């Protein structure tokens, strides 16, 4: 997970213990606990010691995921987080989506033969349609980029693959998971409506707590389902 504020309710709900940095030279933090027979490792990207903010975005997400896989050998990787939604896709603040059938990048424009689709990525998600139906969750393509806002070109690219859940990490986590052939699920709670009238940053800050609570509840159910198949 990228932000500490997003992870707090989850750390409490799963009763996870803080284990310190996943690697002593890097900022990523590890929290560990158990749910039924499964070990739960929650990793946050940690804080930037220069700017005193959380390490959000695509680059820390790659590093966290690689470190997590190398150190913990997970059976499955879940990327919970907050995201922007679209009114045109019937999203409301607090809705929780599973990324399906893929997660993509919307700001890697490489107009060279073969590289266009490579830039977008098209990383598959694990059984998310089946799980979403069982859990009564919305589904949609999660689209990641390195900015909270977007350019008209970003929007065009998102529309080309029906991207309706906009975040800053999922595609990066999915890329590393795919390299290692580990099943990947993105679960995202909506903090702001991209095609609404309010400034994204205001809506995001106003709704971060509520969305993180919704995210926690649904991620708990998701882990329970993956652990028990119920
Ligand atoms: N996280 C929450 N809202 C977002 C948005 N609109 N864009 C990218 N990441 C987000």
Verbal overview:
The chain is 38% helix and 27% strand. With 230 residues, it is α/β, with parallel strands linked by helices. The protein has a single domain (4-228), classed as Nucleoside phosphorylase domain (Rossmann fold, 3-Layer(aba) Sandwich), CATH 3.40.50.1580. The protein is built from 7 helices and 9 strands; from the N terminus they run H-E-E-E-H-E-E-H-E-H-E-H-E-H-E-H. The strands form 2 sheets. Strands 4, 5, 6, 7, 8 and 9 form a 6-stranded mixed β-sheet that branches. A 3-stranded antiparallel β-sheet has the order 1-2-3, with helices on both faces. Helix 1 packs parallel to helix 7 (200-228) and helix 2 (58-72) packs parallel to helix 6 (170-179). The model has no long low-confidence stretch (mean pLDDT 97). The longest helix has 29 residues, at 200-228. Strand 2 and strand 3 form a beta hairpin. The structure holds adenine. Adenine binds at residues 82-84, 148, 166-168, 191-192, 194, 200, 204.
């Amino acid at each position: 997970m990228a932000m500490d504020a997003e992870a707090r309710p989850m750390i409490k709900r799963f009763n996870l213990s803080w284990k310190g940095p996943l690697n002593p030279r890097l900022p990523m933090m590890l929290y560990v606990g158990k749910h039924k027979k499964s070990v739960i490792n929650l990793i946050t990207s940690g804080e930037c010691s220069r700017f005193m903010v959380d390490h959000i975005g695509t680059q820390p997400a790659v590093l966290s995921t690689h470190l997590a896989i190398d150190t913990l050998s997970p059976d499955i990787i879940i990327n919970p987080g907050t995201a922007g939604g679209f009114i045109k896709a019937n999203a409301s603040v607090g809705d929780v989506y599973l990324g399906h059938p893929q997660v993509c990048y919307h700001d890697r424009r490489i107009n060279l033969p073969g590289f266009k689709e490579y830039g977008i990525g098209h990383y598959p998600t694990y059984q998310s349609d089946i799980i979403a139906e069982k859990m009564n969750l919305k589904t949609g393509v999660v689209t990641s980029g390195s900015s909270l806002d977007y350019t008209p070109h970003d929007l065009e690219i998102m529309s080309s693959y029906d991207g309706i859940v906009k975040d800053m990490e999922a595609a990066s986590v999915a890329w590393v998971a795919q390299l290692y052939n580990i099943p990947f699920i993105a679960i995202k709670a909506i903090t702001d409506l991209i095609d609404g009238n309010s400034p994204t940053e205001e809506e995001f800050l106003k709704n971060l707590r509520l969305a993180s609570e919704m995210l926690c509840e649904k991620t708990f159910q998701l882990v329970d389902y993956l652990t028990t198949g119920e």
